[in-house]
Amino acid sequence: MPDTKTETRTATLSFDGKSFELPMHSPTAGPDVIDIQKLYSSAGVFTHDPGFTSTSSCESGLTFIDGDEGILLHRGYSIDELAEQSHYLEVCYLLLYGELPDKKTLDNFEFTITRHTMIHEQMHNFFRGFRRDAHPMATMVGVVGAMSAFYHDSTDIHDSWQREVASHRLIAKMPTIAAMAYKYSIGQPFVYPRNDLSYAANFLRMCFAVPAEEYVVDPVLERAMDRIFTLHADHEQNASTSTVRLASSSGANPFACIAAGIACLWGPAHGGANQACLEMLREIGTPDRIPEFIARAKDKNDPFRLMGFGHRVYKNFDPRARVMKKSADEVLDLLGIEDNPTLQVAKELEKVALEDDYFADKKLYPNVDFYSGIILDAMQFPTAMFTPIFAVARTVGWVSQWKEMISDPALKIGRPRQLYTGPVQRPYVPIEKR
Ligand code: SDX
């Protein structure tokens, strides 16, 4: 568990002539919290916070976000430094174990993860049960959930060794499963992982190699892929991570809980935004159509939103978007498509939106999904693979948050209450009297 919180003072809640003292805790960073765990038992009232805009659901030491300053830290290290100087498997180790590893430890970790990258051969049959045009996220939800039917020796959440093996298996096998979902969707044979390749290079090769010829990974694309994984690794208690935590609180096995996280990530308001953003940029097509879409985004009667803009927490820039934008320029420059029309629309849209009072007032800035789709598109991934790639990267965050929660002795099942506004009790009326 993280450094302990400190109980600093109490908050007084007064209503109906009564007062209740609630303990407050100061974190190592971020806002103080008012601990309301005993509120209902002492005051007989609930708090009400749909969407959890003002609610801390847990204590965690993994990732910290300062939405006003555009800061993202993993175990205290800034995402800018990690994206520039580290690499994805080292960030995985940091999230899982809390410290940057020395070389021997990192080599051992990478050896372990690499040798878990194959999946049980019988699982290949699962893919053949799906339609070829199934969305790869549907395939991933199904196949990852089915892992609990194949890896029985790592489903006991009370056994620390099994938790460790399940964590390694999930981080290692997710790229293989995502690549297999892609290959299956285009009718090409599955490509087995190779132990002599990096995590990112392995994924690119499993997606793009064909038996008919050797596939050589371009180091610039390998670096960009690794950076995309790093930038998506973990992000506090976002919707899919909260889903994993809630599913895990019932004691469900880790594979089922991660499958729940994948399902939640799929939504266009969350991880599905990278696919939706690129489709929106393509629909806009040329910079001269941007005002039309800006007007729609501002129209209260139009459900349209600018995909890739806005964030529940970042009310300034998303530090990941800044790094991603740099990567986009590098990849497009390498591929000689720096005049990529989608990128031109993206850059002009970003400029126009940031100059528009509506977006400035509502603090709507490009988020991590705004540029990632452009890079993935330039790397020849179909848009349907964008969210599966996000799921691959976020697996370490889900697993690390899961491990942190499961090892907390104070763990209890998550069971929110409600503000009930339905009918009060009334007698049943026989049908002949209705
Ligand atoms: C991710 O939580 C995480 O950490 C997520 C994530 C992670 O790493 O896990 O960072 C990954 O999910 C990034 C977000 C990807 N989603 C999108 O790009 C989809 C487009 N963005 C919106 O759907 C929205 O901004 C959200 C869902 C991201 C955040 O929504 P909030 O915080 O609940 O804000 P809101 O919907 O209440 O909007 C506040 C106001 C509203 O106007 P009012 O009702 O107050 O008048 O801003 C408007 C909204 O209408 N608004 C937008 C907008 N986003 C919000 N208007 C136009 N375009 C947008 N994109």
Folded structure, characterized:
It is a single chain. The chain is mainly alpha-helical and 434 residues long. The chain has helices at 39-43, 79-85, 88-97, 103-114, 124-127, 136-146, 160-185, 199-208, 219-231, 239-249, 254-265, 273-284, 290-298, 319-334, 341-355, 357-361, 368-378, 386-406, and strands spanning 6-15, 18-26, 33-34, 63-66, 71-74, 77-78. A three-stranded antiparallel sheet has the order 1-2-3. It has a three-stranded antiparallel sheet with strand order 4-5-6. The chain is globular, with a radius of gyration of 23 Å. The site of s-citryldethia Coenzyme A has 21 residues, from α17. Residues 235, 238, 269-271, 273, 297, 305-313, 362, 364, 367-369 line the site of s-citryldethia Coenzyme A (SDX).
